[in-house]
From TrEMBL:
Record-given protein name: DUF2207 domain-containing protein
Keyword Ribonucleoprotein listed: no
Signal peptide limits: 1-20
Positions of the DUF2207 domain: 24-205
TM stretches of this protein: 229-254, 393-416
Source organism (scientific name): Candidatus Gottesmanbacteria bacterium RIFOXYB1_FULL_47_11
InterPro entries: DUF2207, YciQ-like_C
Occurrences of domain Predicted membrane protein YciQ-like C-terminal (ranges): 281-478
Superkingdom: Bacteria
UniProt-listed Pfam families: DUF2207, DUF2207_C
UniProt entry keywords in alphabetical sequence: Membrane, Signal, Transmembrane, Transmembrane helix
Length: 548
C-alpha cells in the first residue's frame, strides 16, 4: 500500500505543468540617427517572468567600444528615461538601469520602455559612414523569443548597405533578415536567441548626411598628465637604483650591437642587388631588410611587384585607387620561389584566380613573411641571429623597466634595442651593396647612358626602388623615353608614362595595403562589412540584463 501511494504521488507530480522559465517574448528597438551624429534609442521589452515572483528587470549598457587595436573609445549615454520607477548606477565600463519596486513583486509578462541617447556610436570610413551596433546584447541572462530593430537614417533612401549577425559573442550566424525602405532599415530575427546570444546590425550609408564626430579615446591613467607626472616622480625616485642596467645596455651595444666595418663602403652607383653565398640575387624584401634590418610592408610590397614582373600574378587597376590581383601561373612547388615568396602568394590569393586588394587580409600574412625573411637571412649568413628576436629581447627589457618605473632603462633599452641587431662581415658587405643600389635608384644623375635605353632595366629594378621608397625618382629618369605598358600591370589609361605608372604603383600599396590589411576607420575601427570584421557582439552598445 505504501509503495502504491508513493508511485501515485510521483505520477501526479510528473503530470503537473512545468513552470515556464523567464524569457523575453518580444524585444523591439527603434533607433534614429540624428544629423548631429547622435543616435536616440527606444527599447520596448516584453519580459515574461513566468511564475517567478520578481521585482523587475535590470538593463546594462556599455559606455565604451573597442577598435581593432583594442583601444577603447567612450560612448556618451544621456537622456535615460523609463516609464517605470528606476535607478541608474555605473560600474566600470557600463551603466546599469534597475527598473522596478523593491516593495512589490510581479509575475507574468510586463512591458518595459527604455529611452536613451548615445553619442560616439557612428564610425566614419573613406567611402561611407556606418552604424555597427549590438541591438540585442550578448549578456542577456534569458532567451529572446522574437525581436526586431528599426533604424531611421536622415536624408536618404538610396545607397544603404545592411548586414546582421546573430549568436554568441564572436559568432557569424545570420538568423535575421534586413530590409530598408524610405530611409528606415528593419532587421528581424528569424530564429529565437538563447541566453547570452545577441543580434548585431551593420548599416552603411552615404557620407555627409551626419556630422563628423569621432568618439573620444579612453586614455589610460598612465597616459594622462597626472599619470605622466606620477611616472616621472617614481622614475626619479628609482633612478639611483637603476644605473647599472642602462649603462650595461649601452656597453653591450658598443661591444656586440655595431656592424663590422665592410671592406667596400657605400658608393654612389651600383646596378644590381646583393647576392647570397649561392650567388642568388636577393629579393627586394631581403635587400630592403639588409639596409634597415627590418622587413616592413614597403619591402614586402617591393617583392610583390617583383613577383608580378616575374609572371606569377598580374596587377589590375580597376578604378581610381582600386586594384586586383590575377593569378597568372601556378606557384606551388615552383623551385624558383623562396619560401617567403610562396607564403606571400598563398596569403594574398590562395586558391582563387582573382582577388580584390581591398578584400585581402594581409596583416597575418605579412607577419609570417617577415619571420621567414629573417630566418632566410640568418641561414644565408647575413645575420648571426634573427634581428627581430634581438629587438624583441630589448623591447621586453624596456617594458619590464617601464613597469618597474625605471625610465632610464626604458628609454635606453628602447632606443638602443632598435639598433642592436648585428650583421656578419658578409652581411655588412652586402648591406653596403644594397645601400649603393639605393643611392643609384634615388639619384637623378645620369650615371650611365644605357640605363634609359632598356625598359627591362627599368622594370627589373623597380621593385627594389619600391622597397627603398624611391620609385618616383627612379621613374623620372625614364619619363622622356617611349615605353610600352608591362604585361604584368593593367592600367586604365591608353598611354604609358613611367612617372604616371610609378604613381599608380605607389597608390596601390598606399591605399590597397591599408585597406587590405585592416579595413579600419581613422580611429582604428574595423568595418562590419569587411572580411572577418562582422560578428555578433562586434559593434558598439549591446550589454544585456535580467530580472531581480
Amino acid at each position: 500500500m505504501k509503495k502504491l501511494f508513493w508511485s501515485l504521488l510521483l505520477f501526479l507530480l510528473a503530470a503537473l505543468p512545468a513552470q515556464a522559465a523567464e524569457q523575453i517574448d518580444f524585444y523591439r528597438i527603434d533607433a534614429t540617427i540624428q544629423s548631429d551624429a547622435s543616435v536616440s534609442f527606444i527599447e520596448t521589452i516584453d519580459y515574461n517572468f513566468g511564475a517567478e515572483s520578481r521585482h523587475g528587470i535590470f538593463r546594462t549598457i556599455p559606455t565604451t567600444k573597442t577598435n581593432a587595436d583594442n583601444k577603447k573609445f567612450s560612448l556618451e549615454i544621456t537622456d535615460i528615461s523609463v516609464e517605470d520607477p528606476f535607478t541608474t548606477s555605473r560600474t566600470g565600463d557600463e551603466i546599469s538601469i534597475k527598473i522596478g519596486d523593491a516593495n512589490r513583486t510581479i509575475t507574468g509578462t510586463h512591458r518595459y520602455t527604455i529611452r536613451y541617447t548615445v553619442s560616439g556610436a557612428l564610425t566614419y570610413f573613406p567611402d561611407h559612414d556606418e552604424l555597427y551596433w549590438n541591438m540585442f546584447g550578448t549578456n542577456w541572462e534569458v532567451p529572446i523569443v522574437r525581436g526586431a530593430a528599426h533604424v531611421t537614417i536622415p536624408g536618404t533612401t538610396v545607397d544603404i548597405q545592411t548586414k546582421c549577425f546573430t549568436g554568441a559573442s564572436g559568432a557569424t550566424g545570420e538568423d535575421c533578415t534586413t530590409t530598408h525602405q524610405s530611409g528606415v532599415v528593419s532587421t528581424t530575427l528569424t530564429k529565437s536567441l538563447g541566453a547570452y546570444e545577441g543580434m548585431s546590425v551593420v548599416i552603411g550609408f552615404p557620407k555627409d548626411l551626419v556630422a563628423l564626430v569621432d568618439p573620444k579615446e579612453v586614455v589610460p591613467f598612465q597616459m594622462t598628465t597626472a599619470g605622466k607626472i606620477a611616472l616621472l616622480i617614481f622614475g626619479i625616485l628609482a633612478f639611483g637604483w637603476y644605473i647599472a642596467a642602462p649603462l650595461a645596455v649601452i656597453w653591450y651595444w658598443v661591444k656586440h650591437g655595431r656592424d663590422p666595418k665592410a671592406p667596400m663602403g657605400v658608393v654612389s652607383a651600383w646596378f644590381s642587388p646583393p647576392k647570397n653565398s649561392a650567388l642568388r640575387d636577393l629579393t627586394p624584401v631581403e635587400t630592403g631588410t639588409l639596409v634597415d634590418e627590418s622587413a616592413d610592408m614597403r619591402d614586402i610590397y617591393g617583392t610583390l611587384i617583383d613577383l608580378a614582373r616575374r609572371g606569377y600574378i598580374k596587377i589590375v587597376e580597376r578604378s581610381k585607387d582600386k586594384f586586383s590581383f590575377t593569378k597568372m601561373k601556378e606557384w606551388k612547388g615552383d623551385g624558383g620561389l623562396q619560401p617567403f615568396e610562396q607564403e606571400l602568394l598563398t596569403g594574398l590569393i590562395g586558391d582563387k584566380e582573382t582577388v580584390k586588394f581591398e578584400d585581402t587580409e594581409l596583416a597575418v600574412t605579412a607577419k609570417k613573411v617577415s619571420d621567414q625573411v629573417y630566418t632566410s637571412l640568418v641561414a644565408d649568413g647575413f645575420f648571426p641571429k634573427n634581428p627581430q628576436n634581438v629587438r624583441n629581447l630589448f623591447y621586453v627589457i624596456a617594458a619590464l623597466a617601464f613597469i618597474t618605473m625605471n625610465l632610464p632603462l626604458t628609454i635606453i633599452a628602447g632606443i638602443f634595442g632598435r639598433h642592436m641587431p648585428r650583421k656578419t662581415l658578409f652581411g655588412a658587405q652586402s648591406a653596403a651593396i644594397a645601400a649603393s643600389l639605393k643611392n643609384f635608384l634615388g639619384s637623378q644623375e645620369k650615371h650611365l647612358a644605357f640605363q634609359a635605353k632598356n625598359q627591362m632595366f627599368f622594370e627589373k629594378l623597380l621593385p627594389y626602388a619600391v622597397a627603398f621608397g624611391v620609385e618616383d625618382i627612379w621613374a623620372k629618369r625614364f619619363a622622356d623615353i617611349p615605353m610600352t605598358p608591362p604585361d604584368w600591370y593593367q592600367t586604365r589609361g591608353t598611354t604609358f608614362n613611367s612617372v604616371v605608372f610609378a604613381k599608380s604603383i605607389g597608390k596601390s600599396y598606399g591605399s590597397g595595403f591599408t585597406a587590405g590589411a585592416s579595413h579600419q576607420s581613422s580611429t582604428g575601427f574595423r568595418s562590419g562589412f569587411s572580411s572577418g570584421g562582422g560578428f555578433s557582439g562586434g559593434g558598439g552598445g549591446g550589454g544585456g540584463g535580467g530580472s531581480w
